[in-house]
């Protein structure tokens, strides 16, 4: 009878075992069970939790997966995970600087094989114009150009709204230069500045010249990113414009490796004596602002006239 009671109690205990509270064994640093991912404390630093390699690998894998899923959207909208705030342009570009009516716009039209820029004897343009190849002809104003992060000119917004409204984009199809861009700059003019003014700060000089924005700073910005810089002069103003000399000193300094000085409109010279006088005047003016014993090479050129044979010449702008 006693044996039956003992067996009945055991069967009752077994039948109610699922209702019992399970007690896990206490965690200990000596436990080597692979199912325990977290250890209570590090043996070297009792206040710092120690994470097992398996959970570290799991967290890193999850973070990498999340990063890979977010980056395509971030790249499209240039969001807070932007890796490079100063995005460069997709195409290399040639930057043209020079006096007004020195032939910059005519040179662009000749290279591209299309009439993209307006050329004339008087100053015809006061904007920085980005001429880029594309599938069709499109014109955009400054806010659209600088507001597009994919174009690479977003940082120009730091120069203020006046510059933004003096910048524009021209996309042209079927040009002779499908692999690079050309950027035209406002023609530099005579200004009431003296040689003492050249030593002033950039803001002081621009207050005198009154362009409404830091012209020297903008030229420097383009020059640092350009692949080739062409500095144009013409026989009428061979280096005598004060603003041109100021730009050469303050904006194009240190750019000798990609700066080419061009004396354009060589076809205007009727005699070799006239050419020698203009060339000598340009060298003399450059020698006063270039801190070198030897002057850089000066290239002379002129543009052919359209439709009048290869031997015909054109005066430029």
TrEMBL record:
Domain of life according to the entry: Eukaryota
Domain Dynamin N-terminal per the UniProt entry, residue ranges: 94-265
Stored Pfam families: Dynamin_N
Record InterPro entries: Dynamin_N (IPR045063), P-loop_NTPase (IPR027417), TRAFAC_Dynamin-like_GTPase (IPR051943)
Transmembrane parts of this sequence: none
Gene3D superfamilies xref list: P-loop containing nucleotide triphosphate hydrolases (3.40.50.300)
Annotated protein name in UniProt: Dynamin N-terminal domain-containing protein
Organism: Triparma laevis f. inornata
